[in-house]
Fold this protein.
Amino acid sequence: MRGLMMNTPLLISSIAEHAARFHGDREIVSVTADNPRHRCTFRDAIGRSKKLANALAGHGLQQGDRIATIAWNDYRHLEIYFGVSGAGYVCHTINPRLFPEQLVFIINHAEDRWVFVDVMMVPLLEKILPQISAVEGFVIMTDEAGMPETSLPNVHCYETLIGAETEVYEWPALDERSASALCYTSGTTGDPKGVLYDHRSTVLHAFAGVAPDVMGLSSRDCVLPVVPLFHVNAWGIPYSTLMVGSKIVFPGPKMGDGEALCELMESEGVTIALGVPTVWLALLQYCAQAGRLLTGLKRTLIGGAAVPRSMIQEFEDVHDVEVRQGWGMTEMSPLGTCNTVKAGMESLPRDEALDLATKAGRGIFGCELRIVDDKGEVLPWDGVAYGALQVRGPWICSDYFKLDGSAGSHTDDGWFDTGDVATIDPHGYMAITDRTKDVIKSGGEWISSIELENTAMGHPAVAEAAVIGVAHPKWTERPLLIVVRAEGQDVGKDEMLKFFDGKVATWWIPTDVQFVDELPHTATGKIKKIELRRQFADYSFPE
Ligand code: AMP
């Protein structure tokens, strides 16, 4: 027997309408290239996204067309999110930190018809213009006064483009499975791969994101997304905040600026901030140097890379800010797990609580998890067995854009292979130990590079650390620790290695340490292990 409930489609435009109606006065504060503190409301932003939808229709764009953005986090970018997706086009967010060849590949592969670009990123596009000749129109996200001299053809000024339109616009009644947004993964090997989100997956993911044990967002919150709008839809923040009416503070180009982030948090009353560990390093360093405390911030969701134990301690002990670690991927919209304590765990001894907090967290309802061995056999959740982490759910990709199953990313029984290696404990807490390609095998036993990196990061003289496996005549592979010293700090090999005593199994302790000025990073701020392995290809352990 079928149920008798309405079948209303889950659409991004319905989030926009809800936000304008119930939270119209809620503020959006943005740092932009042309304004240090721009202020508008949800009502303004949704009105302007409707003007944009009218403008796009007037220029002959068709539903399903890809419309790209290369921009920082601000209100105009948010308007494009809703104006483009809500009207049935596909909002293709592009990471400006990609190499020019990757930008060319992505724009052409996506067949972007128009590109919206921040003033600061116009030169990026000018350089690759001959290779992206299929793009029909460029929109520079500023007003007439801010328009730069440019060699881009068919160029529009954002404010003029939407200024000519009316706010009267009826969102189309789309199929909820229509594509809404596109984001390419920042793969470290091969060409980038496109993940094509749809309206249904986006709305379901937004529901999941606001839940108490995930972001725990409400209309009383003020959210600072330092995670970029150009990377996995900023973890769904544009949709989750508008769904519940949280105030939004966009840092614009100031994402890596500890002082600016601290100022924004303190003056705007930010209660929740989200970002990758690297940006929080900059913030915590600034606070320590300037003797400042984060007085209003209640919690931070940190993900995208393993969160060092020392970072959790500093947020919690110095600033009284709760750290929630999250794990996910571009292919997963991205939320898969989030780390909060379960009932009965609130009064764990501090050390055990920290051990727990360094894990990636429990599966969020809507994202099933499993770990499997080399033969595909499902492994137990005992916190010890480790294997390939696979996921399944309504906001996990079923394929990559235009690859028709050729990526080999899915199992025959319909699970997505994340490329991560993990353990899951009996309470359901998952811990990432490595990327499949980064696993270190020493004497047939496995060593977690992430745990070693985490431990090294706890040394006060270490700014950043990475561990790679290097060939060893006796053990096949041994861990090599590569360290960037913190400014003005000195630490040598012996002290560094001694620091591991009692913190990890003796046979895990790296065999050697190399000090470098900086580590190579991907466009999303992850350490590029493949590049490190290349740099240390000729390295061999001392006798
Ligand atoms: P991306 O698709 O660029 O967001 O990258 C996703 C990858 O980042 C995952 O597959 C993990 O390897 C890594 N990652 C994300 N969150 C965490 C975390 N909390 N701990 C360790 N690795 C993480």
User: Anything to note?
Assistant: The chain has a mean pLDDT of 95. The chain has three domains: 12-200, 256-402+415-436, 440-535.
